[in-house]
């Protein structure tokens, strides 16, 4: 298998999973990758946020919560 | 040896949406119905409760709710000259497993198709002449009209509490709705969902170009709703975990939320879970199905379940596979065009552009499964195809369904896959980008079909289903046209960067998720030479065998299939209550 294909098809998808999956799987320690992009995580009950923060910075993006925080 | 069980009046294969809708009518009239479902009831499991419901890796990336590919997969090839090989990790589409089937982890888009879709051949021949349809496209009329389906669309939308804005009430075009919508008798049961920021940007660009954007009809509940059966939906939480997930908030209309609880309260309804149907028993001389055989997945015991009536309500390809394995109906042969089972297999011809807007907060995590804004100007036959060299089209939408970070980060073209630049691009664009999608028609092609694989078998030792499928000339030309239309809209958005849509091209790639809308294989119709089941979904070679689902669609439109397959299932439920009283050719 060519190196580029090996990386693109096999390694890169696993790498992104390791980075961006919930920290319960051992990667993304302290939600560092979620913090980097601004993904707020749980609980994601956004019925009011949908209207209040449409088109605006979402405050929860600075302090993401994961499954462990709700277990 | 299989144990033979006591006979049932009706046995249904598969415990998804169509089964529940068929059983609803039958059990209301006192008929006993047994449903066999290979999966289990997941209503109180980690997949449907917080916090584990929000696990992207488990339910989405690893496909935790779908068919187990180690047990059963498909073999795939592009032409009849190729050797098909089994897809070990299928990504293109996601057959369901468990109570509710694929309809438990759908996004919620609920369309009525174009009024002319069930008479598509007649439409094209009338509009463009007898020669308009190329000989290799098996476009055919369905044997049913939209007017016959309308009462069942109406009932389904009421049962599911669909949120939307009508575009055409009894022929009167409604502002804010889809002007190309088939005529409906009244408004949607609930008002539309809240639009996303991406939807608003798309809407403004479309209006600038003179198109008529509207909010797509959705099975995500915009408010609190009680359906005619007394079942309730809660308001959608815009959590971004809809498609590929089970809704923990009872805010997504699904069979296990709205339909099965009612059925399970009826003494003449029975569902057996973790029961995998191995085959249909068929008496070729009498031309009747006598029942089904199944294996209990917990004990490994095999059973023969006799029944007066057998209804196939499994996933699209499973309906075809069961008929082929039982030898009911002649298998389709692409070399001669003779035979019917497996023909008219279609998919969905999609393409997408990515849009990056530096100064707008898109916040992709604020989204429901079907908070889409759409235009229908370039869908199906809503525009003049004279001189274009193809038929069909696509609905073009900004359907921002989620911001789950493994699968839904967009970075501008040319961004490296590692290092500082990769990190910076993700940080810069995650909250400021979205995509535009074309969901396109897929018309039946002579060489796109389903058959049993001669070599490969599943975990039960039965032949795998073989897909012979590729994007053919008509699909590619349609996709090129609609991709240009997407790009024109994207370029009207004052975006910082546009990564333009490129047309679908051969070869079909099974690894990349595209759509779970596989259709056909057991097409319906008025002519037994070109259809597997009649206009009333009765198998031409077995009077007491019925098939329903997207497998009976003779073609696929630029819409999601749920509304139409649900209407067909409700109609079949009514037909079957009459058939139970007086069995006959319907």
Structure description:
The complex is a heterodimer of chains A (71) and B (586). By secondary structure, chain A is mostly helical. Helices cover 39% and strands 0% of the residues of chain A. Chain A has one domain (3-70). Chain A has helices at 3-20, 32-37, 49-52. Chain A is elongated and about 50 Å long. Chain B is an alpha/beta fold and 586 residues long. Chain B has one domain: FAD/NAD(P)-binding domain, CATH 3.50.50. Chain B contains 10 helices and 22 strands. In chain B, strands 1, 2, 3, 11, 12, 13, 14 and 22 form an 8-stranded mixed beta sheet that branches. Chain B has a 6-stranded antiparallel beta sheet with strand order 8-16-17-18-15-21, covered by helices on one side. Chain B has a 4-stranded mixed beta sheet with strand order 5-4-20-19, with helices on one face. In chain B, helix 1 (17-28) links the parallel strand 2 (8-13) and strand 3 (33-36). The model of chain B has no long low-confidence stretch (mean pLDDT 97).
Note the main attributes of this structure.
heterodimer; A: 71 residues; mainly alpha; 0% strand; B: 586 residues; alpha/beta; FAD/NAD(P)-binding domain; 8-stranded mixed β-sheet; 6-stranded antiparallel β-sheet; 10 helices
Topology:
The complex is a heterodimer of chains A (71) and B (586).
Chain A: H1 3-20, H2 32-37, H3 49-52
Chain B: E1 3-4, E2 8-13, H1 17-28, E3 33-36, H2 56-61, E4 74-77, E5 85-86, H3 120-128, H4 146-160, E6 168-169, E7 172-173, H5 197-208, E8 214-215, E9 225-226, E10 232-233, H6 255-264, E11 269-272, E12 275-283, E13 288-296, E14 302-312, H7 316-326, E15 349-356, E16 372-375, E17 394-399, H8 419-429, E18 433-440, E19 449-457, E20 463-468, H9 473-491, E21 497-499, E22 545-547, H10 562-581
Parallel strand pairs in B: 1-14, 2-3, 2-14, 3-11, 4-20, 14-22
Antiparallel strand pairs in B: 4-5, 6-7, 8-16, 9-10, 12-13, 13-14, 15-18, 15-21, 16-17, 17-18, 19-20
Helix pairs in contact in B: 1-6, 1-10, 4-10
């Amino acid at each position: 298998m060519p190196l580029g294909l090996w990386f693109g098809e096999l390694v890169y998808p696993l790498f992104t999973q390791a980075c961006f999956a919930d920290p319960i799987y051992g990667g993304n320690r302290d939600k560092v990758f979620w913090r980097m992009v601004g993904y707020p995580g749980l609980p994601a009950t956004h019925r009011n946020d949908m209207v209040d923060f449409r088109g605006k910075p979402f405050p929860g993006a600075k302090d993401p919560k994961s499954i462990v925080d709700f277990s | 040896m299989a144990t033979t069980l006591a006979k049932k009046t009706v046995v249904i294969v598969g415990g998804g949406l169509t089964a529940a809708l068929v059983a609803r009518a039958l059990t209301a009239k006192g008929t006993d119905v047994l449903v066999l479902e290979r999966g289990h009831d997941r209503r109180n499991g980690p997949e449907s409760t917080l916090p584990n419901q929000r696990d992207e890796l488990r339910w989405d990336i690893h496909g935790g709710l779908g068919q187990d590919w180690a047990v059963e997969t498909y073999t795939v090839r592009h032409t009849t000259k190729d050797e098909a090989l089994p897809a070990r990790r299928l990504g293109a589409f996601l057959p369901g497993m468990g109570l509710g089937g694929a309809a438990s982890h759908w996004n919620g888009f609920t369309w009525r198709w174009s009024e002319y879709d069930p008479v598509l051949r007649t439409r094209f021949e009338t509009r463009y002449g007898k020669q308009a349809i190329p000989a290799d496209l098996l476009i055919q009329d369905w044997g049913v009209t939209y007017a016959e389906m309308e009462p069942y669309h109406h009932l389904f939308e009421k049962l599911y509490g669909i949120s939307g804005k009508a575009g055409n009430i009894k022929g009167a075009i409604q502002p804010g709705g889809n002007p190309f919508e088939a005529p409906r008798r009244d408004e949607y049961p609930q008002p539309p969902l809240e639009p996303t920021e991406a939807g608003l940007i798309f809407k403004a660009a479309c209006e600038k170009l003179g198109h008529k954007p509207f909010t797509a009809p959705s099975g995500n509940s915009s408010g609190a709703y009680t359906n005619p059966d007394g079942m309730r939906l809660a308001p959608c939480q815009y959590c971004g975990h809809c498609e590929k997930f089970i809704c923990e908030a009872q805010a997504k209309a699904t069979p296990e939320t709205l339909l099965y609880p009612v059925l399970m309260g009826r003494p003449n309804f029975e569902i057996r879970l973790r029961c995998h149907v191995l085959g249909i028993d068929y008496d070729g001389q009498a031309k009747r199905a006598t029942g089904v055989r199944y294996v209990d997945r917990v004990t490994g015991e095999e059973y023969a379940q006799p029944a007066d009536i057998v209804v196939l309500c499994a996933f699209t390809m499973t309906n075809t596979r069961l008929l082929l394995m039982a030898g009911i109906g002649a298998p389709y042969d692409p070399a001669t065009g003779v035979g019917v089972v497996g023909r008219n297999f279609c998919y969905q011809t999609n393409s997408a552009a990515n849009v990056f807007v530096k100064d707008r907060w898109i916040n992709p995590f604020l989204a429901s499964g079907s908070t889409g804004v759409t235009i229908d100007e370039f869908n199906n036959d809503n525009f003049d195809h004279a001189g274009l060299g193809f038929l069909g089209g696509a609905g073009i939408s900004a359907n921002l369904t989620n911001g789950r970070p493994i699968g839904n980060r967009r970075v501008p073209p040319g961004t490296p896959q590692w290092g500082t630049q990769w990190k910076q691009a993700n940080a810069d664009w995650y909250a400021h980008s979205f995509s535009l999608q074309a969901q396109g028609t897929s018309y039946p092609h002579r060489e796109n079909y389903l058959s049993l694989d001669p070599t490969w078998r599943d975990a039960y030792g039965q032949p795998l289903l073989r897909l012979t499928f590729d994007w053919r000339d008509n699909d590619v030309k349609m996709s090129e046209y609609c991709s240009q239309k997407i790009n024109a809209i994207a370029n009207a958005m004052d975006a910082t960067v546009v990564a333009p849509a490129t047309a679908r091209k051969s070869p079909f790639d099974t690894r990349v998720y595209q759509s779970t809308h596989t259709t056909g294989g057991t097409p319906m119709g008025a002519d037994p030479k070109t259809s597997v089941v009649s206009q009333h979904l009765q198998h031409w070679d077995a009077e007491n065998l019925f098939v329903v689902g997207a497998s009976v669609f003779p073609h696929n439109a630029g819409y999601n299939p749920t509304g139409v397959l649900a209407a067909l299932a409700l109609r079949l439920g009514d037909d079957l209550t009459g058939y139970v009283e007086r069995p006959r050719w319907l």
